[in-house]
Design a protein that fits this description.
Mn(2+) 1 binds at residues 132, 167, 445. The structure is a single chain. With 479 residues, the chain is α+β, with helices and mostly antiparallel strands. The chain folds into 2 domains: 5-210 and 384-472, Aminopeptidase, CATH 3.40.630.10; 212-266 and 311-382, Alpha-Beta Plaits. The chain is built from 14 helices and 20 strands. The chain has helices at residues 5-14, 16-27, 39-55, 130-150, 173-180, 229-232, 239-247, 271-274, 284-291, 301-309, 350-368, 392-405, 419-428, 453-472, and strands at 59-63, 67-68, 71-75, 79-84, 92-98, 118-119, 124-126, 157-163, 190-193, 205-210, 212-221, 227-228, 313-320, 331-332, 335-344, 373-382, 385-386, 410-414, 432-434, 450-452. The strands form 6 sheets. The chain has a 6-stranded mixed beta sheet, sandwiched between helices. Strand 6 (118-119) and strand 7 form a beta hairpin. The longest helix has 21 residues, at 130-150. The chain starts with a helix and ends in a 7-residue tail after the last helix. The structure holds zinc ion.
């Protein structure tokens, strides 16, 4: 065991109730970034964090980000940055979290008041922001306090970057990180983000990859206005018929993408990577439970997880301009826009993907010989991210999980994206680790969001232990 962990762990247990009260105070501030009326509360939450950090002896700054684009009457909440420790002999870890939350109203179906932390007999702590992301942010503050009270030297220099607009697109944050990467954040040896979730409920995970997303529109138009099928059916070429044909040529029932050349961009599965999968605690029943049916594409866990994390997928989302109400309207839509997206993985470069998509959609449409016109374009794209799970940053976290929870962590990727991850990696050039505190059942963004007491208290131990192992880990930059 890393030295000094035992007194630290004991102190975390002794302070558990204090830490829960800290979470209660934070949850009570409705820092909803999406709502104008709550903007003052988002500021209040930033002050709360700044005060807590200052009280513990950190140097804290609240950096303004200016006016909110498109809502110029609103000031963006500040990025709360802090430095705890400035010892050149120690490593420096940059941690990120966010202090704003998703909206929450009783009318949405909450069983308890969303901004009133409610702990039930199972130790589930319900409240908006409990798991996303106030619990994890406070975990870092708790770790500092427990070290001080236990009289254990803090093992690293800590840099904090806590933002207040994450749930509203992280307005202004990328520019800030890029500007500070070689200034305030320049000493960072590695980055740790605690803002995602375990794969299940029992076993912690470390996350080393996220898929990207390219989102497309296919617009087909012909007639000058919507037509009636009784009058024009059979005599006018119908945009919807063309669009259905195009959309049907994108992906098959096995999830195979039908766009020529696309699958060739995907990095092959390595032997080292393959070995990470069998240990992951996940079952097909977990999948069936979360999709609410047994309509899976694959029958095995490994294939399912790989399909979700490390292979691309294509989903058809909807058709704009199509009749979608109940009933039997006999309209022929004049213009329809099909929407689909591709979740991208290494080594799919966005512009290469776009070109293959455009070419394929055009080829398919041209083969129809339709007199309608078609346009295909990318609405937005976000890049995938993958880090080395064998880097010292991950090895340290892995040892910390073993120490606190007695198990090897699941090494996971996620199918969705967390854009700030890639911003930190590109701006600092350092390894980024995703070290989640909450579990898969926490319901971030939905009603009855919660964080289990175990995840919060053992999670605080985990964050502290991670920093101790970081201080000890040989600095291999192994890829
Ligand atoms: Zn979050």
């Amino acid at each position: 065991m890393a030295p000094n962990l035992d007194p630290y762990f004991k102190q975390v247990d002794a302070l558990a109730d204090t830490f829960i009260e800290r979470l209660r105070a934070a949850v009570a501030i409705p820092s909803v970034s999406a709502s104008d009326e709550n903007r003052k509360d988002v500021f209040r939450m930033g002050d709360f964090l700044a005060d807590e950090l200052t009280r513990l002896g950190a140097e804290v700054e609240k950096r303004p980000l200016g006016k909110q684009p498109g809502k110029e009457h609103l000031e963006l909440p500040p990025v709360v940055i802090a430095r705890y420790g400035n010892d050149k002999k120690k490593r420096t870890i940059l941690v990120y979290g966010h202090y704003d939350v998703q909206p929450a109203l009783m009318e949405d179906g909450w069983a308890t008041k969303p901004f009133d932390l409610t702990v039930d007999e199972k130790g589930r702590m319900f409240g908006r922001g409990s798991t996303d992301d106030k619990g994890p942010v406070l975990g870092w503050i708790n770790a500092i306090e427990a070290h001080q009270k236990a009289g254990v030297e803090f093992p690293v220099n800590l840099l904090c970057c806590f933002e207040g607009m994450e749930e509203y697109g992280s307005e202004g944050l990328d520019d800030f990180i890029n500007a500070e990467a070689k200034k305030y954040f320049k000493d960072a040896d590695a980055v740790c983000i605690s803002d995602n979730y375990w794969l299940g409920t029992e076993k912690p995970c470390l996350t080393y990859g996220l898929r990207g997303c390219n989102y497309y529109s296919v617009e087909i138009k012909g007639p000058a206005q919507d037509l009636h099928s009784g009058v024009f059916g059979g005599s006018a070429q119908e945009p919807m018929t063309d669009l259905m044909h195009v959309l049907s040529k994108l992906v098959d029932q096995k999830g195979q993408i039908l766009i020529p050349g696309l699958n060739e961009l995907v990095a092959p599965v390595t032997e080292d990577e393959k070995k990470l999968y069998p240990n992951i605690s996940y079952t097909m029943d977990n999948l069936y439970e979360s999709i609410g049916s047994k309509t899976s594409i694959f029958e095995t866990k490994d294939e399912t997880l790989m399909a979700r994390w490390r292979f691309p997928s294509l989903s058809v989302h909807g058709v704009e301009g199509a009749f979608s109400q109940p009933g039997a309207k006999t309209v022929i839509p004049a213009k329809v826009i099909g929407k689909f997206s591709i979740r991208t993985v290494p080594n799919m470069e966005s512009n290469e993907v776009n070109e293959l998509v455009y070419k394929h959609v055009k080829d398919v449409f041209n083969k129809l010989g339709s007199k309608n016109s078609m346009n295909v374009y990318c609405q937005h794209d976000g890049k995938w991210w993958v880090a080395s799970p064998f880097h010292w940053n991950f090895q340290a976290a892995s040892k910390a999980v073993k120490q606190v929870f007695g198990v090897e962590p699941d090494m996971t990727r996620e199918g969705g994206s967390i854009p700030v991850t890639i911003t930190f990696e590109q701006a600092t050039g350092k390894n980024v680790l995703l070290l989640p505190m909450g579990s898969s059942t926490d319901g971030a963004h939905s009603i009855n969001e919660k964080l289990d007491r175990r995840n919060y208290i053992e999670g605080t131990k985990l964050l502290g232990a991670y920093l101790h192992y970081v201080a000890e880990e040989p600095m291999n930059e192994k890829k």
